Amino acid sequence: MRWMGAVAVALFAAAPASAPVAAQSGDDAFRTYLAELARQAEREGVSRRTIDAVMPTLTFNPRVIELDRQQPGGGANSPIPAFEPYRRTHVNADRIARGRQAYQRQRWRLEKIERETGVPESIMVAIWGHETGYGRVMGNFDLPRSLATLAFEGRRRDLFASEFIATLKMMDRGVPREKLVGSWAGAFGGPQFLPSVYLRLARDGDGDGLADLWSSEADTLVSIANYFVDAGWRPGEPWGFAVNVPAGLDRAAIANRTVSPRCPRVHDRHSRWKSMAEWRALGIVPQTRAWPGDAVQATLLEPDGPGKTAYLLTGNYRVILDYNCSNFYALSVGLLADEVER
């Protein structure tokens, strides 16, 4: 499992490692901050019952800060590694085999969710596999304690204070306190949602009245699908596919000239958008699948450079990037999905 849930990555990446930290982490300072956090939670509508039940139980967790500061930086000018080694470790035989088992076990449910949402069964399974190994590794950190600690530390106080309060709101919605465990960075359950994402997009898939992302595979899968619907998934359109690029392709003529407001380094690696008909006219050849409709738009990505496997990537690929703004992650999700349903 990665260090935190995929939907949290872009938020965390925005903060520089050298940002100032809270002046002290002693118990008195932490208790003072908790009182401030409690007042903020009450102003935002959290019940007094929940506040009084949680706040006295919290202590500062130095291990969370240690893990936070161990995260790699990766500056804007740092070299981008090759994709192929990443693909071999993230779309490996074990993950594919377990994914196929999960796919078959949940097939009756997945078919129903796909009919209702348009999100492919295999994409739901691939996200589940990448996030938590199909529910095997979900983290055991106490979420309120971790989030309060990260908020107190101060580098991303607004973010973590907001997520802490969202966790209290989850309790007000009926999530038991003992279920609130996850990664040290606040993501949890099969989809590794942040609390704010849970409040917006988690769904009850088994009809028991609670969106239980820790114990219910039905809730996990329908919540992943709901995330993709909310992010704009287009039913019937592939995420992308591997292609061969002719040696004489004029890459300057297809270069992207726009700047993405989000994750620009990720999007800068893509070409400009062209239709499938236009890509075919340029000599692009699919490796293993037929062309989609001529009007479908796609960008070209060559993650390992010219002469290696390239990919045509549709708007649905951008939905996977919304889950985790990393080309390596999104490519691996798509490729795992293809293997799972093969």
Automatic annotation (TrEMBL):
The keyword Signal applies. Keywords: Signal. InterPro entries: Lysozyme-like_dom_sf, MltB-like, MltB_2, SLT_2. This is Lytic transglycosylase domain-containing protein. NCBIfam families: MltB_2 (TIGR02283). Residues 30-338 form the Transglycosylase SLT domain. Residues 1-19 form the signal peptide. SUPFAM superfamilies: Lysozyme-like.
